[in-house]
Design goal:
By secondary structure, this protein is of the alpha+beta class. Helices cover 39% and strands 20% of the residues. The protein has three domains: 275 residues, BirA Bifunctional Protein, domain 2; 188 residues; 152 residues, 2-Layer Sandwich (Threonyl-tRNA Synthetase, Chain A, domain 2).
Length: 635
């Protein structure tokens, strides 16, 4: 089965069971300054899980694109990836445990043909300190489902000590089988919803080789032991409890289901191959890397690891750039830069000396041409960004080589510490991946194993960032509520900025990304030159004129096609659901408006609430892309 076939089968199945299919949200979260990326399938659905009405109804399904920056160092084995798709379905106060588990089992076994003998499940064993009972209801449902396939589903209550024990259903505690935004029940604040979950694991077989020096070699094998035999492929969260002010839990009046299943992982199970990189979602990239390196994917462990890192990192970087995240040294752009530079380094490990990453971009576009055709539309632009980044990395390497050559000559230094790497970063802007690449070239030793070395570097960087934030916090007054209110103002100001740029510079200007904090708004847009002083003055004058007019901001729910026909701006319209929210700024929603955009909000009700703004700076971020910063006037 191919990735496209699996994605289509899943969405069709749940559509037949009354779910409305919605498109993937952006990898850049909309109106959520608390996180850089969309890292889970439920993240865009959170407002609806917390009580807001979804315009598509109470049964929703999708395949959500996700990126987890914290997994960068994990890539290299047969299952970890930074970018992935999460197949999801939600019940917003509609069906609950019985329907969810029945449909999931039916999809996995009857629809795509997984062998039920290879499926194992986990459930929540309760939390007596909070008077939350074990999830015996899910146990009973699973036993009935397995029984219909002739399988006696034995329950194991303590698998971490007892091992498999011929079990089929396993009880785990709150660290494994409980979900809330803030973690297990102990960590949840009052007013936070959460609930037990039930996970499905696929068994690749007891003959899977475990190295004798593995940390798992002398431990009892169970589905959650991470030895490699079992792969988690699905998780059904039953959001049914609310934590009260006195620390207890009560049942929610509206119980929700939040399901997530990794597309790449379910595909690995379907094809009975634990290596996700041998699926069609990666294999065209693997083949292209083999052509460029004259190496074989399975030649040895070191080469295989480099193949996987390059394939994963290029795929993830392309997806992020398609959503407007350009390689930089800050925030989201830092992770794209790190992905690309780490891929370059592993290309060199494979013997690829020349620039090569841009040659892999068409392979990513081909893999996803059916699901995400916009990648083909942006392939030339993304390829140019990748070429620029490869050139910049080579320049950075040259500067870094000179500095390290001085250090080695001056002090006979042949070991690099994390402190050395951070000093290079602070002094010369040398990324940690650059330092490691230089160490490879000069045959210098890292003080720690690479993963621990990078972790130590990141710790130093985080400590420095924390000190910097503490220093800058004194500049800004007002509590959390003040900050939230200012962010809302900037959200509406973004629409005014977009409208002003298109009016002054031309309709070819298109939004490429934005980032909003309570301190300022940042807006990326397509334009091939720097703005003149007169153009910048015209833009900010027009924005402040609209603010001074105190124009109303209207919110309307409408069909996507109706919104587009009405003139609403919606780049990559294919990503929006059929029912969308349109914000119109102007005297009338249907006439005289100065801005009309598809957006999830939140926004002020009138432009006068924003206050006068000023342009902080305007700069290039990549070929054909500019970045502009606005902030509130302080005088």
């Amino acid at each position: 089965m191919t990735g496209n076939e699996l994605r289509k089968a899943y969405l069709n199945f749940f559509q037949q069971h009354g779910h409305v299919i919605v498109p993937s949200a952006s990898l850049v979260p909309e109106n959520d300054p608390t996180t850089l990326f969309t890292g889970s399938g439920m993240q865009p659905m959170l407002p609806y899980l917390l009580g807001a009405s979804h315009p598509a109804g109470k049964r929703i399904a999708d395949s959500q694109r996700c990126f987890r920056s914290q997994d960068i160092e994990e890539v290299g084995d047969n299952r970890h990836t930074t970018f992935f798709e999460m197949l999801g379905n939600w019940s917003l106060g509609d069906y609950f445990k019985e329907a969810q588990l029945k449909w999931l089992f039916e999809f996995l076994v009857d629809e795509i043909g997984l062998d039920p003998q290879k499926l194992y499940v986990t459930v929540f064993k309760g939390a007596s300190n909070f008077e939350i009972a074990e999830d015996s209801e899910s146990v009973q449902i699973w036993q009935e489902l397995f029984a219909k396939k002739g399988i006696d589903a034995t329950v194991i209550t303590n698998p971490e000590k007892e091992g498999l024990q011929n079990g089929r259903i396993f009880y785990y505690g709150q660290a494994k089988n409980w979900w809330s935004r803030s973690g297990d029940p102990d960590q949840m604040p009052p007013g936070e919803p959460g609930g037990p979950d039930s996970e499905v694991f696929y068994d690749f077989g007891a003959d899977l080789k475990i190295h004798p020096y593995s940390q798992f070699a002398d431990q009892p094998c169970h589905v959650n032991c991470d030895c490699g035999r079992f792969l988690e492929i699905a998780n059904s969260v039953f959001m049914q409890y609310l934590k009260t002010k006195d620390g207890k839990f009560i049942e929610l009046p509206q119980k929700n289901v939040d399901f997530g299943g990794g597309l790449e992982r379910i595909l690995a199970a379907k094809n009975h191959n634990p290596d996700v990189f041998q699926s069609d979602l990666f294999w065209p990239l693997v083949e292209k890397i083999a052509d460029l390196s004259y190496r074989s994917y399975l030649a040895n462990d070191i080469d295989t690891q480099s193949f996987r890192i390059i394939a994963d990192h290029v795929r993830a970087a392309v997806m992020l750039m398609a959503d407007g995240v350009i390689p930089t040294n800050k925030e989201r752009g830092y992770f794209v830069r790190r992905l690309l530079r780490r891929a370059i380094r592993h290309g060199r490990i494979l013997g690829i000396k020349e620039s090569f990453l841009s040659l892999l971009v068409p392979s990513v576009a081909t893999i996803y041409e059916t699901a995400y055709p916009e990648l083909n539309q942006q392939m030339s632009l993304i390829s140019n960004w990748v070429i620029e980044e490869e050139e910049k990395f080579e320049q950075t390497l040259q500067r870094g080589r000179k500095e390290w050559a001085k250090r080695v000559t001056r002090g006979g230094q042949n070991t690099i510490s994390a402190e050395d790497a951070f000093d290079m970063y602070q002094t010369h802007g040398t990324a940690v991946e650059t330092t490691i690449a230089i160490a490879d070239e000069y045959q210098l030793d890292l003080e720690l194993e690479e993963t621990r070395f990078i972790a130590a570097f990141e710790k130093l960087k985080a400590q420095h960032a924390m000190q910097s934030r503490k220093g800058s916090a004194k500049k800004f007054k007002g509590g959390l509520q003040d900050h939230e209110r200012q962010s809302v103002k900037y959200h509406t100001a973004t629409h005014l900025l977009h409208a002003a740029l298109r009016k002054i510079l031309g309709a070819e200007v298109q939004q490429k990304g934005s980032n909003i904090t309570h301190e300022r708004l940042r807006f990326d847009f397509s334009f091939n030159r720097a703005l003149t002083a007169d153009e910048k003055q015209a833009v900010i004058t027009l924005i402040n004129q609209w603010i001074a007019q105190n124009l109303p901001v209207y919110r309307q729910e409408m069909e996507k096609e109706q919104a587009l026909q009405s003139g609403a701006v919606a780049f990559f319209a294919e990503r929006y659901p059929d029912q969308v929210t349109v914000y119109t700024i102007g005297d009338q929603p249907d006439q005289g408006w100065i801005s009309k955009e598809v957006c999830g909000g939140p926004h002020v009700s009138r432009t006068g609430e924003i206050g006068m703004l000023t342009i902080q700076k305007e700069q290039a971020v990549a070929a054909g892309t500019r970045r502009i910063y606005l902030q509130a006037k302080t005088d």
